[in-house]
Design brief:
This protein is of the alpha/beta class. The chain has two domains: 159 residues, VC0802-like, CATH 3.30.2130.30; 192 residues, Vaccinia Virus protein VP39 (Rossmann fold, 3-Layer(aba) Sandwich), CATH 3.40.50.150. The protein is 31% helix and 32% strand. The strands form three sheets. The protein has an eight-stranded mixed sheet. A seven-stranded mixed sheet has the order 11-10-9-12-15-17-16. α3 packs parallel to α4 and α6 crosses α7. The longest helix is centred in the middle third of the chain and has 19 residues. The radius of gyration is 23 Å and the shape is elongated. The two termini are 33 Å apart.
């Protein structure tokens, strides 16, 4: 089957990579067919169970569709595709439907909206003449015309993201809060980029308030978190508890982790760069400059990540510096991908997806 993913436009590269990483985690093979205007189309075979798992995991995908036909983005050809589609193959008598048009454009004029509504009406008339009833408020099936610059995809909606869930998990709503933490939606995407499987051992060696661990726990990973500061570990435990999640939380030095070699399936962490990180394993930061201290801490921690990670395991490392990319090669990691996203005008985060060779 061909699946179309309507990706979030809040980042240029992360949403597509998240989809592929989730398919990898589910051991699902796929072939990329189209990537245009925030629409990713892949040819794959998914069981209903795998599709349900995929839809629950994704963080920065709006909707998943099954593609039933495609044409040039011209009205006559679009309506011909709707007319020729074998709707009876997946619509039973008595089921209701609605048609929606989604034209992927940053500029939406009033004239364009009128044209979309007219196209919805005409496509709906074709389906209605096949013997099905319209229900615009609570349809049994929703058909969507996804229109990009080059193509229109006639689709059946399979899953729409629950946009409220990440808002309900905003960091400041948790019992323990610290400024500067990664937002839940992005944390979920980072977890997915690690391709962690359900039940796999997942490590955050700088776990802080536990935001990344929460997102990993909600998709079924076995959690391990480490932080130098006892107050952070206690706070992370409180935050995990409100989502009924348990983790093995350790107060310790991430450059000397009390974990066995090759014992972890995936690692995701946001490397420290603030004042709270200026605490070394031997006491408080004194002689070295802040920059050199943090660089040494990051290198030592990455060396430990390589030691504890299983072969072919993935590490998703986030930093506020692009120097992360240069020293990732030093520890026998294969660099799979690099991403960058802007948090605000004075902070960008750099993301490296690494695989242990």
């Amino acid at each position: 089957m061909e699946l179309a993913f309507e990706l979030s436009r809040e980042h240029e590269t992360l949403p597509k990579s998240e989809v592929f990483a989730c398919l990898h985690a589910l051991s699902v093979s796929y072939v990329e067919k189209v990537f245009s205007d925030g629409i990713l189309v892949v040819d794959t075979q998914l069981s209903h169970e795998a599709l349900d798992t995929l839809s629950r995991r994704l963080g920065i995908t709006h909707c998943i569709y099954e593609v039933k036909g495609c044409s040039k983005p011209e009205e006559r050809e679009i309506l011909a595709v709707v007319k020729n589609a074998d709707i009876d193959n997946f619509m039973e008598q008595g089921l209701t439907f609605a048609v929606r048009v989604k034209a992927k454009s940053n500029f939406i004029s009033e004239e364009k909206k009128l044209l979309e509504r007219d196209l919805e009406r005409k496509a709906g008339e074709i389906i209605r003449w096949k013997g099905y009833k319209v229900n615009l408020t609570n349809p049994s099936k929703t058909f969507v015309l996804l229109i990009t610059k080059q193509t229109c995809f006639f689709c059946l909606l399979l899953h729409a993201a629950d946009k409220k869930q990440f808002g309900e998990r905003k960091p400041h709503l948790r019992p323990f809060f610290s400024p500067g933490v990664i937002k839940p939606k992005i944390a979920r995407a980072l977890v997915n980029l690690s391709s962690i499987k359900e039940g796999g051992i997942f490590l955050d060696p700088f776990c802080g308030t536990g935001g990344i661990l929460i997102e990993a726990g909600l998709i079924g990973a076995t959690l391990v978190g480490i932080d130098m500061q006892a107050k952070m570990v206690r706070g992370a435990e409180k935050n995990l508890r409100i989502y009924e999640l348990k983790a093995n939380l350790i107060v310790g030095d991430s450059s000397k982790m009390a974990l066995r070699d090759n014992s972890v399936d995936a690692v995701v962490t946001d490397l420290p760069y603030g004042r709270s990180s200026l605490v070394s394993r031997s006491g408080y930061f004194l002689a070295e400059s802040r920059t050199r201290f943090l660089e040494r801490l990051h290198r030592d921690a990455l060396n430990e990540v390589h030691r504890v990670l299983k072969t072919r395991g993935r590490a998703v490392i986030v930093s506020n510096s692009s120097s992360l990319y240069s020293f990732s090669h030093e520890f026998h990691f294969r660099v799979l991908e690099n991403h960058k996203y802007r948090v605000h005008k004075s902070l960008s985060r750099y993301i490296a997806i690494l695989e242990k060779e």
